[in-house]
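Action item from last meeting closed. Structure (245 res):
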């Protein structure tokens, strides 16, 4: 669990709003944007009672086992989705690697994986001209509800037992600033290098009402994933739902 005083000491001059429990830090951050909170503000919680995931999914947010954070960002640099998602994914991946010694993979567009199971997810929403970036990292869970048990893992379940939560948060916040300032081109290069999913991976992708199976061909200039089906047809994937075939 996070020691807030220690976290504040590692992130001086940074507004941090922390909740024992709240519905979702995305909603708290959106509320703070409406109240004029500056870009850079970090909103976190020990527990979320209605954590939000991508595409209408929920985010399992049990008390004191995960890092649940939203960060208010100014839309500049890589604020177009998907480059923003690439930046957030890289930021989370590197923070996890540094804090745990593990070596996570990235699955386009927003999953951080350890041994093919999700240990973190990122998302972003626009709120009154600001971006609210949401990052959830499974740190200390020893088990998950049956419906996500086959898909989710935690740093602890993967062998990292002594993660310093404050360091993880501080590195994450610095990494977000660092990657979000990069050009789309650099982010596409870095993400392609860090992810095993971008080239030559056989995947199944859920599109509107149907799924396709094919080999990944790389990211296009906008950061979208290109998949070639066995009949040679190339499809540019505009939203998530990518899994191994
Ligand atoms: C995904 O579906 O992969 C994105 C998950 C994002 C979860 C984080 S936890 C902190 C923030 N608050 C939320 O309710 N969701 C995001």
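Sequence:
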């Amino acid at each position: 669990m996070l020691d807030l005083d220690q976290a504040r000491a590692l992130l001086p001059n940074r507004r941090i709003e922390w909740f024992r429990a709240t519905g979702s830090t995305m909603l708290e951050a959106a509320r703070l944007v409406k109240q004029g909170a500056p870009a850079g503000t970090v909103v976190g919680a020990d527990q979320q009672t209605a954590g939000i995931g991508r595409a209408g999914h929920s985010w399992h947010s049990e008390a004191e086992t995960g890092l649940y954070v939203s960060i208010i960002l100014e839309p500049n640099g890589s604020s177009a989705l998907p480059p923003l998602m690439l930046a957030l994914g890289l930021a989370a991946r590197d923070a996890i690697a540094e804090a745990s010694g593990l070596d996570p993979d990235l699955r386009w567009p927003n999953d951080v994986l350890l041994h093919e199971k999700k240990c973190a997810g990122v998302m972003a929403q626009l709120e009154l001209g600001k971006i609210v970036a949401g990052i959830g990292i499974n740190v200390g869970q020893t088990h998950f509800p049956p419906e996500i048990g086959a898909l989710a893992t935690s740093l602890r379940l993967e062998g990292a037992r002594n993660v310093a939560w404050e360091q993880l948060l501080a590195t994450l916040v610095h990494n977000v600033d660092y990657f979000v300032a990069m050009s789309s081109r650099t982010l596409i290069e870095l993400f392609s290098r860090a992810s095993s999913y971008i080239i030559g991976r056989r995947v199944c992708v859920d599109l509107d009402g149907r799924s396709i199976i094919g080999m990944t061909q790389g990211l296009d200039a906008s950061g979208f994933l290109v998949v070639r089906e066995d009949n040679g047809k190339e499809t540019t994937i505009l939203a998530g739902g990518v899994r191994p075939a």
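Note appended to the action item: The chain has six helices and twelve strands.
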